[in-house]
Amino acid sequence: MMFQYSFRYFFVILGGVFTLLSSCTKEELDIYKRPATLEPPIYQTLQSKGNFTSLLGVIDKSGYQRTLSSAGYWTFFAPNDDAFKTYFTSTGLTLAAIDSVKAREIVQSMLVFNAFDQTRLPDYQSPLGWQEARAFRRKTAYYTGFYDETTFEGTKLKAVSLNRPNNNYIVGDNNNKHISYFTSEYFSAIGLSATDYNYFYPNTPYTGFNVMEAKVVNADIFAENGMIHEIDHVLNPQPSIDEFLRTKPQYSVFRNLIEKYASTYALNDPMTTKYANLTGKGDKVYVKTFNKQASSGKFLTFAPNCENFLKNAENDSQLDMWSAFIPTNDVLNQYINNVLLENYTSLDAMPPGIIIDLINAHLFPTTVWPSKFRNSFNALGEEARFDANVDVVEKKVLSNAMFYGTNKVQASNLFSSVYSKAYLDPKFSIMTRILDMDWKNTILNPRVNYTLFMISDEAFKAAGYDYDPSKFVSNIANSEWGYTPPGSTTRTPGTSVLASLQRIVATSVIYTPQNQLGDLSGKGVIDAINGEYIKFENNKIYSTGTKNAPITVTKSKTATNGKVYYTNGLLNFAPNNTSIADPIGKDLSVLGATSDLPYYNFYQYLKNSTLFTAATFAINGVNEGSFYTFFVPDNAAIQAAVNAGLLPGTGSGAVKTPNFNPTSLLDKKIVEDFINYHILNKKVVATDGKESGAMETLLKDAVGDPVKISVINAVGSMQLADATSKKSNVRVDKSNNLSNRAMIHLIDGYLKAN
């Protein structure tokens, strides 16, 4: 029924159409006729205006008359006759002297794909739709194509530039250049002002709609095949960074670093064929890339010859561009000689990755506006450390980047922080590798001070450690790291060795925001960045494994965020350069070895308790890998605890004899609880004044919750309060004894739990 109704209705409508058509003339029936109200194409519109005579002559020579007279979708920034008059005067050219190549260059560089009126130009044409006031660049019809290149080694070849920032090349993408424009909508959205524009173009007033150094004097001239914006200046295509540096000898040192240590040339067969088809010549064509150090994982932040920005989206070049701060030859040479080559004979002698880092310190993966140096960061996470009014000697908006020529080198953390002292010295390559794994980004922070105890490759090797990539074995993780005990020829490789090295290096990194170490000729205790403690006295450094054989400081150097001390050894956690640390119980056995030592009575109770394993010195509940603090009552305090009935003793008088090895289960439990109440669980505290407050012990109450004590900590003193508010003092002269992730203190009283 519905179908019948629809069919009948169709013929009723169709009949009406026939009736209507029968009353129309032939001219009225021409549905392909160009509407009379439609604006003429761009070329004809320019003709009708009367003030684009020179531009039309250039278009004619360029071969673009047909393109701009027919269908299409363009935005054309069109210089008027006054603009060309100025152009001819400044260049010495005439319209007659402009050949077809130059004419195409002029036209293409101002001809933008797609049509945009003034209201749309500031908007980003994203894959998901328009995003307002985010764009300041558009792709033009101009591209470089094939060009003659000379490599750093002097080889001449035919090349094309990369068209993808990740060192890839896509055949068919011409790597078109972009033109930048500056609108009030965009400037307002991102917090810019006329000052940002005039920094680059001091001779052009900012009007709120400028295209490069030109003012738009008549916007939104509609045409059949696009949009025309009349401008008062003839614009030339801008070079990429790669092209720009070729013509600037004052930056040749920086360019040579890129050419020698980053640039490569990859033969491209499809482009070779294309070149042959276009020219009839047999030259091989190479794509210039920047992945020379790919095997080491080092790449330039971006390819200086790529016009396509990140290419995360088809049009992301509308949003952003790169930036480069390039120091002049004199300041860069001075920096290389004084900083990079302090410990190397030449640049060729150092790892090339260092040079890539130096280059990258000056390359920013975003637009750095003149007013936003402090808010723009390079790939290393560093702001642009230049004064826009003092340190910049040349500035230019290029086709793919903002360029700043500078009279100083970026003060990169890589080459100025405490990290740099290891990184730039080949004698500390093992330490640098370990720092890179764990602490590099931490100690690069220029706003926080650190102290670094330098460990040379020689010191690591003397202790039995090595790094040898040639000994990598696929079925053993981290097998390039090895340990050979002194006097042995058996090398143990793998993850456990690497973990030991990481612990040693971490113990050598000290967070010192107020430079607490001060003068190492004094005496003190301080915690490393991994929570372990070291001690220093009279320029000697003590760690858990070197407490009986301290290492000596031989010299020091100052960095921007701290100080480094060079030593004659390593801050090992294991004694005598072994790979296994002594257990805490063993250190206590040494401290309490004889009755004349103040730790003796406590150790006697410990070694005979149910907590202790004599064969291994292990203490039940004290686990390797965790942190602990032992507060050991001195002999007199232990005697007082025995007299008070808190530890087993014999005799009936006021003074009892300690019973170090009781037999009853109750007495054994009393000893166990007493010891546990004198051990802080998972925490190390020293008399450095850093940590105070209620802290958990190993003792548990009836419901299994840890029993706490109070610690009142000051530099050079510490007081403890137990559950009964009874106070004891740390005997500093006999305390701060280093152990395996632990600290052992002697106290003048005992702690009593309720």
TrEMBL record:
Pfam annotation, one family: Fasciclin
Gene3D superfamilies recorded: FAS1 domain
Domain FAS1: 39-235, 415-571, 586-751
Entries under InterPro entries matching the protein: Adhesion/Biosynth-related, FAS1_dom_sf, FAS1_domain
Name of protein: Fasciclin domain-containing protein
UniProt organism field: Arcicella lustrica
